[in-house]
Amino acid sequence: MANIHINIGSNQNRRENLSKAINAIQMAFENTVFSRVYESKAFGFKGDDFYNIGINATTHLTISEVVDILHKIEYDLGRDRKALKFSSRSIDLDLTLYDVVIDQNYNLPRDDILKYNFVLMPLAELSPNLTHPQQHQTYVQLRATMDELKSYNIEILNKERP
User: Is residue 116 part of a domain?
Assistant: First the structure.
């Protein structure tokens, strides 16, 4: 059984798309645990703010099978994989960790962990004492180097923002 971490982001119809993605992930993987919702500015382009959430889960599936499931969920939720990397997204699902596997072909651990607070903060919330397999620091230690983001309890998905 592998421990995985998935990062979800959306800046189009954010609440609905995150909610649908969470439901699909709960159906596909076991022992799902969710971070708070983090709000971040669009990076690399002008667009609406993103909601991001991290999910820890377990699976018997291979890395390839997990990525295929995530791509299918994205497709089902209207993701255009041909769009520019830095552009608005209905949904973006990234496999961030698969146990402590280091695999350049699958970008594991995902290099975005060390670049973007919207990837690192949910991971540090859910797995604070887990050590990055290449940096040899815990995710809480790595998080201390980045600015904080506004966050909401998961109930924000069902309510209007204050």
Answer: no
